[in-house]
Design brief:
By secondary structure, this protein is α+β, with helices and mostly antiparallel strands. It has eight helices and eleven strands. A hairpin with a 2-residue loop joins strand 10 and strand 11. The longest helix has 38 residues. The radius of gyration is 33 Å and the shape is elongated.
Length: 294
């Protein structure tokens, strides 16, 4: 049986990139020093088959942990294995790892941004990917440089009585808050003027707004969401004022604007960095829903 000191050496070897069996073989061969050993001898020591031992020794040769020594006393075709000098081996491994890290850092500096752009394009939705309900509202935005990176559709449940179409968009000219939101609640009856339904959705958005902000993990310590009013195209609409606290000793900051638009059988919730972004989405919704603002 191996003693505790041997176990410690074997655990340390596993940290260097070997699995348990490879660590055990290298440690056993290491104790043979420059004399080395044959596969059959190691198989006997470690109580395993010679053929299995040969395949594992071959892997260790490929990894540089051991090398094959030409032993004139060995029968023809029988390989004699010697452990690589551990000091030289680990110095080489450290140099190799350092070089790999330098190459990775260089890759991050030279290609990281390009790879990120490829990734972003890969997760974006094009016009052909849009849900039929969302198409009329989102296609005009995509044509002007907006990007859709998420669309989540939840069909009606008995307890709800409405469908939810939730999208995350990236406006082309956002400065600080890069993404914006577009949520459509689609009912089976007219909700414009139905204050009970409108207030229910507003309360739902208040609860949902705070929890989703915390899920983004952007360093927010606290969030305040309150009901307010916003003016769009000379008309007042319900809105949510979202204030963020980033430091326990700082002040709450309002970093986005939002609007809640009850139109026909739908309630739209829009938010973005500023009034300009919210107005752009609202203008398309009014046009699609054939709302004529005086």
């Amino acid at each position: 049986m191996k003693d505790s000191k041997s176990d410690r050496f074997i655990r340390d070897l596993q940290k260097a990139g070997l699995n348990y069996e490879e660590s055990t073989i290298y440690f056993a061969l290491l104790q043979k020093g420059s004399k080395g050993a044959f596969a059959s001898e190691l198989a006997s020591i470690l109580k395993t088959k010679r053929t299995s031992m040969l395949s594992k020794l071959t892997r260790l040769v490929q990894k540089g942990y051991i090398h094959i020594n030409t032993n004139p006393q060995a029968p023809r075709g029988i390989k004699h294995f010697i452990a690589s000098n551990p000091a030289e081996l680990f110095r080489h491994k450290v140099d190799q790892t350092r070089q790999q890290l330098e190459e990775l850092e260089k890759l991050a500096q030279t290609q990281g941004k390009r790879l990120e752009q490829l990734y972003q394009r890969g997760i974006e939705y094009g016009p052909d990917d849009l849900d039929p309900f969302l198409g009329p509202y989102l296609k005009p935005l995509l044509e002007t440089g907006w990007r859709l990176i998420e669309q989540d559709i939840e069909k009606s449940k008995i307890s709800h009585g409405f469908d939810v179409y939730d999208c995350t968009l990236i406006p082309p000219n956002a400065q600080f808050i890069k993404d914006s939101g577009f949520i459509a609640f689609s009912f089976h009856h007219v909700v414009d003027g139905d204050n009970t339904t409108i207030n229910f959705i507003i309360d739902l958005l208040v609860r949902r707004g705070a929890s989703e902000i915390f899920q983004k993990d952007i360093g927010v310590k606290d969030v305040r969401v309150s009901k307010t009013i916003i003016e769009l195209f000379n008309h007042n609409y319900p809105s949510l004022k979202m204030e963020f606290l980033f430091s326990p000793h700082g002040d709450f900051q309002e970093l986005s604007k939002s609007a809640i638009l009850p139109i026909n059988d739908k309630i739209f919730f829009l938010w973005g960095e500023d009034l300009r972004i919210v107005s752009e989405i609202a203008g398309i919704i009014f046009r699609v829903e054939k709302v004529h603002l005086a």
